[in-house]
Design brief:
This protein is α+β, with helices and mostly antiparallel strands and 637 residues long. The chain is built from 18 helices and 25 strands.
């Protein structure tokens, strides 16, 4: 992707300057004179930290710069960018053309923390870019998309790869496109900026702002330059406030703001809890004789046991590139299971190894994904904002696709947001910040029930309703075999037209873990360094980075590592070190600990997959946003 402004890592100070410049550039198109630079309102949040000097306390509590926008989108992935693009399309076509739509993305580069298989359906792309001509059938640059020209569905048993009938939902041949979603998101960012969306990468959003009635009125970006001890460093920069008429949460699976909004507004009331999977993948350069451009294969069975949901995939795309990956359902009960090691083991099956032998692994990534389907979709709107994409959870598990639904939800949200704000006063025509503050206080809170209604009438709902029983069918007493039998009948014959809706276990993915005493430890093969790799070698391929001297963004109660080990290790024997695909958690010997060990968090390894926040058996690990720009720097994922 060409280097553009979206590839710049923004600091909070740069963000203020960039917002000022954005206003300056827009002012030449306004009919009402505006100031040449934006005047910021200032607010103050009191912090009380022991051990701080008066000067340090004043610095940490200095007023925040504030900006006023029409729509603030948190998350620059497919759903967030689709929302922003559609909003500006509507505004430019039938509005004033002056809506301020801001996208805040924690990755230093758009797409830098995006992970997916991925195979795209072209329909939503044609809907979003109806006037774009394409020679390849999808409005993307031809170098970014590879049409599926051959596909397999296999059941792996021993060294065998047995062909299985492919359900209609899984058919990609001649229809869909293999991509690096990482690259596609970068392209979407360019399209958004061309339309006038303000895109700010490298900006982490730490909090929602609430008014006196507990409605969301915007967000706060994370303070930067704070040491492990909580003291401001020389690089300290105060975060900003963005006040918005609508806040769009597009953080992806299990986002930290979304997690808080779900709880505060009880958005899961009457709905099932979410259940998750962990997707782990690598990108390989393979030998020409092992490469079949446009080939897409999915596998079931080996290496996973019958009681673990999941499956593997390999996609051949671009110029000699193969994506190979494994998705493991996180509702497994055995604490000795290691999704990472299951993936490494899978690659040694002849169906995969014959493709990878003689090749070179060039990239590694992992990310949690939503698997709950329709039963787990929460209420999509709340006072002041909405959920789109994987913040809500629209993955079609049998299709093994969700990007099309994520983007479609963004389009639905954008249409309803535009209807609700298009007649409101134009922010760019108001110079006085006090007037804006008063105006925001007086404007009615927008709670978009119409968005939830449009979802229920949409293709997303229809698609998820048809397959609603397939994923939970694998959670029954017969495990994977029972799920395959039921899903085969449902997919090929019933098409979801049954009077029942299956439910998931009442326990969430962390609570469902059983004591280690119920199982035997699993002896996984040692990596050979050719086809399979140790976890630190894989992490080195992510480009992940966190400053050693910043607060740990992975939180346990009181950050007491000995006490955490006391509560967890005797029961689950270090499950945290096994469910994490990046070597973040380990238990080290500690003679002072009553259980002889303590937890150690290697937060610098974190690749922001969110698995720990999901799978911790006592639900006592909390993932918080680190400084903007921290985390993995993925390529080709």
């Amino acid at each position: 992707m060409p280097e553009k402004e979206i590839m710049i890592r923004f600091s909070n100070r740069n963000l203020v300057r960039s917002v000022q410049m954005a206003t300056l550039l827009k002012s030449s198109n306004l009919t009402v004179p505006t100031a040449l630079t934006r005047r910021f309102s200032l607010t103050c949040r009191v912090l009380n930290k022991a051990g701080l000097t008066e000067e340090e306390r004043e610095l940490l509590n200095e007023p925040r710069a504030r900006d006023y926008v029409d729509v603030c989108v948190v998350g620059g992935g497919p759903a967030g960018l689709a929302t922003a693009i559609k909003l500006k399309q509507l505004d430019n076509a039938s509005g004033t053309g002056q809506l301020r739509v801001v996208v805040l993305e924690k990755s230093s580069v758009l797409g830098g923390q995006t992970v997916s298989g991925a195979i795209l359906e072209p329909g939503v792309w044609k809907e979003l870019f109806p006037d774009e001509k394409s020679d390849i059938g999808i409005p993307l640059p031809k170098e970014l998309a590879t049409l599926v020209t051959k596909e397999h569905l296999k059941f792996l048993k021993g060294n065998w790869a047995i062909s299985v009938p492919e359900p209609s939902q899984m058919v990609n041949l001649g229809r869909n496109y293999i991509v690096s979603l990482n690259q596609v998101v970068g392209y979407l960012g360019e399209k958004a900026e061309e339309l006038g969306v303000e895109v700010y990468p490298g900006i982490a959003v730490s909090d929602l702002i609430y008014d006196q009635n507990n409605a969301v009125k915007g967000v706060i970006t994370n303070d930067a330059g704070i040491s492990k001890s909580g003291k401001p460093k020389e690089t300290f920069e105060r975060g900003m406030e963005f006040w918005a008429r609508q806040t769009v949460l597009a953080e992806g699976c299990h986002g930290s703001l979304t997690k808080n909004a779900l709880k505060k507004f009880e958005l899961r009331k009457g709905r099932q809890h979410q259940t998750y999977g962990l997707g782990i993948k690598e990108v390989w350069e393979v030998k020409p004789e092992n490469f079949t451009k446009g080939f897409a294969a999915h596998t079931m069975g080996y290496p996973l046991s019958n009681d673990i949901y999941g499956g593997g995939f390999q996609y051949h795309f671009g110029d000699g590139l193969v994506t190979v990956g494994l998705v493991v359902g996180l509702d497994y009960k055995n604490p000795y299971v290691s999704p990472y090691k299951e993936f490494q083991k899978m690659k040694h099956h002849p169906y995969y190894s014959k493709v990878l032998e003689g090749g070179k692994c060039i990239s590694y990534a992992a990310r949690a994904l939503n698997e709950g389907g329709l039963q787990s979709v929460p209420k999509l709107n709340f006072p002041g904002g909405v959920l789109v994409g994987d913040s809500a959870g629209f993955l079609n598990v049998p299709k093994i696709k969700g990007t099309h639904n994520a983007m479609k939800s963004g389009l639905l949200a954008a249409e309803k947001i535009f209807e609700s704000i298009k007649e409101l006063p134009v922010l760019e025509e108001i110079e006085d910040e006090d007037v804006k503050t008063e105006m925001f206080a007086k404007e009615p809170v927008i709670n978009l029930e119409t968005y939830e209604d449009s979802f229920k009438q949409s293709s997303i709902y229809k698609e998820l309703y048809e397959v609603r029983n397939i994923r939970p069918s694998f959670s029954g007493r017969l495990g994977g075999y029972g799920g395959m039998i039921y899903s085969g009948i449902d997919s090929l014959l019933l098409k979801g037209k049954v009077p029942w809706t299956l439910k998931f276990d009442e326990k969430n993915d962390g609570e469902i873990l059983e004591p280690a005493a119920n199982y035997k430890p699993i002896e996984y093969p040692k990596p050979d360094g050719v086809i399979s790799f140790d976890i630190l070698t894989s992490v080195s391929r992510t480009g992940t980075y966190h400053d050693d001297n910043e607060p740990c963004h992975l939180r346990v109660p009181d950050q007491d590592m000995v006490k955490y080990a006391e509560r967890s290790f005797p029961v689950w024997k270090g499950v945290e070190s096994r469910f994490c695909p990046a070597g973040v958690y380990e238990f080290v010997k500690d003679e002072k600990s009553p259980v002889g060990t303590r937890l150690q968090i290697n937060s610098q390894n974190c690749i922001h997959c969110k698995t720990c926040d999901i799978k911790a058996p006592r639900q006592d690990i909390t993932w918080k946003v680190p400084e903007g720009g921290d985390g993995p720097k993925y390529t080709l994922t």
